[in-house]
Amino acid sequence: MQDALAEVEPEVAPAQLAENAQGKEDRKDKKRVWRIRTVPTSLLKFRAFQKGRGQPEANLKKTRERNESLEGRCGLGCMVIPCCQRLNNIYCFMIFYCLLVTSQGIVFGLIDLSIDTFQKAYHLSNVENLLLSLTYDISSCLIVVFISYYGGKGNIPRWITLSSFLVGFGSLLFAFPYFSDGNYQSSINIEDICQEMKTSKICKKSSSFSTKYIASFILGQTVQGIAGMPLYILGVVFIGNSVATHSAGIYIGLIESSVVLGYSLSYVIVALLIKGTENSTFAFSGEDTDGDQRWMQKWWIYFGLVSLIAWSTLIPLSCFPHSIRGTAKIKAEKRKQPNPFKLKIKDQEFGTSLKDLFSTIWVLLKSPLFICLTLAKASESLVYIGASVFLPIYIENQFILTHSTATKIAGFVLFPGGALGQLLGGTIASMLHMSCKALMRFVMVTSVISVIFFGFVIFVHCDPVPFAGINEDYDGTGHLGNLTAPCNSHCKCSSSFYSAVCGRDNIAYFSPCFAGCTLSKTFNHHKAYYNCSCIQEGLTTSDDQGDFIDARPGTCDTKCYKLPLFVAFIFSTILFSIFSRIPSTLTILRIVPDNQRSLALGLTYVILRIFGTIPGPILFRMVGDTSCIFRVTEYCGNKGNCRIYNKLKMAYLMVGICSICKLITIFFTAIAFCLYKCLSEENSDTLHIPVKNLKVKRKGKN
Fold first, then answer.
1. Is 258 inside a domain boundary?
2. Are 246 and 226 in contact (CB under 8 A)?
3. For residue 532, what is the DSSP state?
4. CA dihedral sign of residues 383, 384, 385, 389
5. Which of 557, 576, 594 is the last residue of a domain?
């Protein structure tokens, strides 16, 4: 036994002396670097290279870890500002970082609202509409792998600074068509009452504005896609490396909730700009050209403000060093902790060549655990995508609200449900110090609860409103599915223009023309229609001049008061559904090696886009098309907008698709849980002690 100790101690003593000498060397190096702070970094790198020459290959990994843990000082380039060093911490970084992320969230909301309004006004084809919507996802997928791999090996704050500039620049590209061309309106006039057709110059649209809009938005979406990758991939990795393991959930939750906050704010703030009118399919009228131009010009103001917000973070973010203060201590503590399961590639080192990139990708894709967690995250994202795309349409048609009111309600539901869900999900995971298996259990439990709430949502719907020509046959004189009846056949009405009115008989009509109205008056900005040949029954009311009003603009009241109950259920559904997003991200970060985290998130992003965000809008638009009862006639050779939906079918389809997505999330998470349990030893998140340490222990026991 003593002989064995005698063999071990001579090896330990030189190691301790070498460690002490190395510590003194590091302190001297720090002092030297501080004295020559203004010397170009290339000279410092050259000095480190000369110093590292001749080192054994076994020490290269230690040298790399020591360089990564080197904390820099806050400053702009070679200028170090002493008074700013107190700001060199994760809290100040998070303030500017979340502000930047919120600004891009606002851009996302403005883009969706602007595209929706533009599509209704200019009747874009499905290909053009999808191209405008999916350019961000496609462009980001093409570059995310390269940015995540090479950016993860570089200076991440510099990448985020680049994102700050690109977010502002991309926002200005979206504003360009609005302030560069004053001719916004389409030469279309409104068809109003019977025998007074006001349709003129149909299909002679402002082609210059349309072309500028499509080109600017495609380019802007591409720039935003490039800007988003350092934000949501490298930024998450940087924060994960700068905070304790069980605190990462709170910070990542703040980041994700900031995106949702910005997106929802854009819905609430810009809802008043949605000029798709309260009950019509078109946005422009030749009778109010000046008002339409003033409305359209407001869009560029919002995009310009977002650019200023994003660029306000440019200088502060550029001042942060490669590693902020406190990172070295946190990394040292993490190295002392037991290593979690790392996909069996913990000790593999990859370079910067393309061969190393594809080798790393192949190693990650060979892991069924990683693939299952990524697919679960992709299916879970479909629920929130469906809510953001389909919820405003659903609320508008289910509860007969105006488009702007429905958009506001959707924004109020998405904001607290999405933002609080992600923030609370990350906070709960951090406060309870959840292990990987506990995180996967949390995902499955919250997904089951959200499916239960989806089941309650399906019972909250309203009865359809009587609509002439759709579910009412003009008192037996017409036919279902045909808006024309003997009472309005002489009016030569066109179904290209939807402007619903409610008759005194509590029946909705497609337009005043289809109601047979021959006279209209406006009192206090409220319009009323008279002498409607299709309206013969109902209580009569007179105006200030004694004339009897037959119809008023808007769809009839459904007398359905279930909207508060629906909001409560859909809020709970989104809340519990979003609970699982941060735990899913944390699980992926923990099962991969530290030096492969950025690439793992990049691959997750690609899979999430391919199976989630890219097919998601297409899927939910198909749901809307299948539940459509009546669509306006062909307009300028393009497919018209759907105006009347089957409410019950819409409810079943929305709830069914979202429930299936959550069940897929549960399925893949359960498989990942079983795989992790089988691959880990004794239901623990730790690995065996490395073999080289076991040899020393066995040597001491002999």
1. yes
2. no
3. E
4. positive
5. 557
- For residue 273, being part of any structural domain is answered with yes
Which residues have C-beta within 8 Å of that of residue 521, sequence separation ≥ 6? 527, 528, 530, 543, 545, 547
Backbone angles phi, psi at 550, to 5 degrees: -100, -30
Give the per-residue pLDDT at 410.
Answer: 83
| Residues 454, 655: Cα–Cα separation, whole Å | 6
- Which of 557, 590, 614 terminates a domain? The answer is 557
pLDDT above 70: percentage of residues in the chain: 72
pLDDT at 121: 67
DSSP letter for each residue of 592-611:
S-GGGHHHHHHHHHHHHIII
- Closest C-alpha to 303, from 102, 97, 106, 98: 106
Give the residue numbers spanning the domain of 549.
464-557
pLDDT, residue 297, reads 59
The pLDDT value recorded for residue 57 is 43
- Distance of alpha carbon 566 from alpha carbon 535, whole angstroms: 34
In a domain, 153, yes or no: yes
Residue in 336, 405, 321 with CA at minimum distance from that of residue 92: 321
Q: What is the pLDDT of residue 445?
A: 94
Planar angle of CA 133, 283, 643, nearest 5 degrees: 75
Predicted confidence at residue 162, as pLDDT, reads 93
How distant is the alpha carbon of residue 582 from its chain centre? 14
Percent of the chain with pLDDT over 90: 16
pLDDT value for 350: 65
Containing 501, the helix (H) or strand (E) segment is strand 501-503
Q: ∠126-259-590 over CA atoms, to 5°?
A: 110
Give, to the nearest 10 degrees, the angle between helix 436-457 and helix 647-679.
170
Residues, the chain? 702
Listed as ranges, residues in the chain with pLDDT below 70 are: 1-72, 75, 77-78, 81, 120-123, 125-126, 179-192, 195-209, 271-297, 334-351, 546, 633-640, 681-702
First to last CA, the chain: 6
* CA-atom Rg of the chain in angstroms: 31
**How far is 437 from 682, CA to CA, in rounded Å?**
12
**Shared-domain flag, residues 132 and 121:** yes
Any idea what the Cα angle at residue 134 is, between residues 399 and 166, rounded to 5°?
Answer: 110
Same-domain pairing of 433 and 474: no
The CATH number linked to 420 is 1.20.1250.20
Predicted pLDDT at 71: 64
Whether residues 107 and 230 share a domain: the answer is yes
User: Could you give the CA distance from residue 423 to residue 407 in angstroms, rounded to a whole number?
Assistant: 23
| Residue 556 DSSP symbol | P
**Structural domain count, the chain:** 3
